[in-house]
Amino acid sequence: MKKSWPAIKFVLPVFLIWRTILLLLGLLSFQLFTFKASFPYIDQALIASHFPQWLWHWGNFDGVHYLSLAFFGYREGDQVFFPLFPLIIRIVGDVVGNYFLAGLLISNLAVLLAAIVFYRLVNRDFNQSTARWSVIFLFFFPTSFFFGAVYTESLFLLLLLSAYYFSGLKSLLSSFLAGLTRLVGFFDLPAGFLGVFSYILYLWKNFNNPFYFLSAQAAFQNERVFSLTHIITPPQVVWRYFKILTQVSYSHPDFWVAALELTAFLFGLVVLGWLTIKKRVPTKYLLFSWPAFLLPAFSGTFSSFPRYLLTIFPIFIGLALIKKPVYKTAILLIFFCLLTILTMLWLRGYWIS
Fold it and tell me: Model pTM?
């Protein structure tokens, strides 16, 4: 505990400020945007929680699927979601008496712990200043509101960082559990692939389809295509997005979603490329980051890329390593402006990532 105190002393106030800002943005969003219910299970998963909308809207989009899994287990199409997060929701929900509350508590506690581990990891590898800036960039990234929602990002980041921070059995267990949380956990050394294989065996035994989590993508109409016979490369996807931006009117929401997704991919590519060429972070971090970054890009779309960047943690270290404080401050201001807009839109049911 004594070793963790400097990290806790810095991270906890940042977390509380971030969480307060998000709650205030949620309240403000009611005055600025109408609610657009563009996802299922609202009645069963959210309204049935008996919380007011300013709280239950943190379970929007994928959140309702995780809550549905906690309630009912796997139904057709749900296999795209890995099992650990809904399993923990079910366990905690049975204790506190409310699955939505359980999901919210898990996500927020997990991101707080993840940020503490992140601080200690970066402080160990670099210095205190870099650790502080890394945490700040993490919390105020434009899509960081997902950390506070009923999504897997917080839990996955905690397990991912723990696998790097700890050693021995703790590292093995953390990486294994990361593989049970997200597909890209496969690349989390040393045992992430075992977690993914465990889920594959479960699907094989129970649904006679070991790769159901890939074929189930079609049920969500997210245009993802994973095929060994028809590989779509990232340059092809970039070209496709440029065509979208030239053919769709900027007054249409699809234009701005495409612009955000393409920008997120190019931003991640530039930062990871710089970190790799300049050798600014340990190689083991890049051994996870590059595959985790590129795998979704081979699916034919950059959909959800703004959210996927949240767990590519070397990106935040890279931003923290920028030498001039004025540049870091400028980036932070841009991030905050985007975070403000994107949070309110997502909470009101508009697809962001």
Answer: 0.95
